[in-house]
């Protein structure tokens, strides 16, 4: 999933060393995307970091929501068609 972000003035610099083979592979990929090496590396590093951080997102719940959440975990609904329909059609506590 390639996400383009608005171009903003660049205020910081990142320097890195890379072996020639890896640089060539990344350069080829950047050319295929019709973008500069720097833009390609920044966009892909940003996307990878965003995905990783998304996995670390915390849910913030009130005490009532936490109690309801744990009650639901401790008492799963019966495995019936009616219960499954209810689960899929009624709004949940986080909706």
Q: How is this fold's topology laid out?
A:
Blueprint: H1 20-32, H2 37-54, H3 63-74, H4 81-89
Helix pairs in contact: 1-2
- Return the string of H and E elements: HHHH
* Unreliable parts: none
Assembly type of the shown chains? single chain
Overall strand count:
0
List keywords for this structure.
95 residues; mainly alpha; 4 helices; single chain; elongated
Describe the structure.
The protein is mostly helical and 95 residues long. The chain folds into two domains: 1-57; 59-95, no CATH class. 55% of the residues lie in helices and 0% in strands. The protein contains four helices and no strands. The model has no long low-confidence stretch (mean pLDDT 86).
Compact description:
With 95 residues, this protein is mainly alpha-helical. The chain contains four helices and no strands. The protein has helices at residues 20-32, 37-54, 63-74, 81-89.
């Amino acid at each position: 999933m390639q996400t383009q972000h608005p171009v903003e003035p660049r205020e910081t610099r990142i320097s890195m060393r890379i072996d020639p083979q890896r640089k060539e592979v990344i350069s080829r990929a950047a050319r295929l995307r019709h973008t500069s090496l720097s833009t390609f590396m920044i966009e892909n590093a940003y996307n990878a970091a965003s995905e990783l951080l998304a996995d670390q997102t915390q849910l913030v719940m009130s005490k009532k929501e936490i109690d309801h959440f744990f009650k639901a975990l401790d008492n799963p609904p019966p495995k019936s068609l009616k219960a499954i329909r209810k689960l899929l059609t009624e709004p949940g506590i986080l909706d």
